[in-house]
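Format notes (please read before filing issues)

Several people have asked whether sequences and structure tokens are stored in separate files. They are not. Every record keeps both together, in the order shown below: the sequence lines, then the token lines. Line labels are part of the format and must not be stripped during preprocessing.
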Amino acid sequence: MEASSNKTRLENLGNLEKMLTWSDCHQLVPPQKELLAFVDRITCNKNVTRGLIVLLQQACTSISCMEYEQTFNVGNELMNFTWEMLNCGHWKDVDCCWLQIYSLASLFKAISLMKMTDGRSKIEEICRVCDMGVLMGAPIFDDILNQLIKIIQQNLPQIPNVVEEKMAGDCPPTHDAGDGEVRKSVNYLTCPSMQTFKYSCMDAVEPAVIRGCVDHWPAFKKWNLQYMNEIAGHRTVPVEVGSKYTDDDWGQKLMTINQFIRECVLPAPHGGKPLKQGYLAQHQLFDQIPELRSDIDIPDYCCITTAEEDGFDVDENVDINAWFGPKGTVSPCHHDPKHNLLVQVVGRKLIRLYPSSCSPSLYPREDLINNTSQVDVENPDHQQFPLFHQADQLHCKQLILQPGEMLYIPPKYWHYIRSLDTSFSVSFWW
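Then the structure lines:
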């Protein structure tokens, strides 16, 4: 009798917890008047049809009236239409209103899914819908989609532990760190002053490895595969599939971080390479998953600007990207338009650097990715690219970036990167 009573009490507590969770989520939804005002604001003077505006208004009304099936259907229709608008041209040319509409439709769908079912049976789908809104849309209502994910995470089912506890432990000496030829080395600086960094690196347009500036990051103690799995295993992220982005078979796929770890990072069941080639590259993971953002800090050097800009806001003007993948991931030789601090948190990376004066000898591509070299710098075709050999001999700087080190790469400076271990890096562009 007592056991039965305890079971009933636990079930009631579970139901209460569930009700409180969904109530917390629904309380985040703005009132109808605010929703309608938002729709008016983002569709004003935009190329948005009257029919689409009516659908948005219907969804605002139905979710406020708790008509969740209607909200779900309209939200789905809005997401499908907006998806087409997001993918009909170059991403940078997409009007922000379509990003905001997509996020708003994701909100409608997520909330209606919670209320149409018992919630828990659809919770992984709800998390995926919110993530798609975060990835493909734009922040709305104080980043409401990430707020929703934070609430529902406590009810996500536990996912199996990964086999390896660490991404890279004591790294053995590598025999896979280049062709053995002696190349120039970069400068190594230990906690340089802001003035020294600006003068020696930024003004001189000179790469350098900086030590002793990020050792305090919690990431160095916390980041391993199991931690990533626990913190973010259910989250959906874009993964580059293929050897490198210049290959014909390269593509992108959306998958959960747990799926990425199991298929692209961990060795195959009987040893050997992972089941698939994949790289979580150049992704703003820290905007998507704030728990990981709290494990790192923006280096102070990112405050320095080459033009004396007033009101420079580090949080607004520094792009933070994650680079997470297995041994052997490659970023082909390319250059970027911004200053770059690349922090190595886990594993090691082989890096080759070439000044912008070497551009003709690196044979830039003539297509959309014209910031990328045609030359495979570790296995060059000297007949096809005859100028490369001399530039490689005279100007190439090579290093192995170790955990705790930070590499400064000036704008337009060519760089090639290959992971020597399972690796996690963080880049700061400004």
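For reference, the curators noted about this record: Residues 8-17, 168-175 have pLDDT under 50 and may be disordered. The first strand starts at residue 187 and ends at 190.
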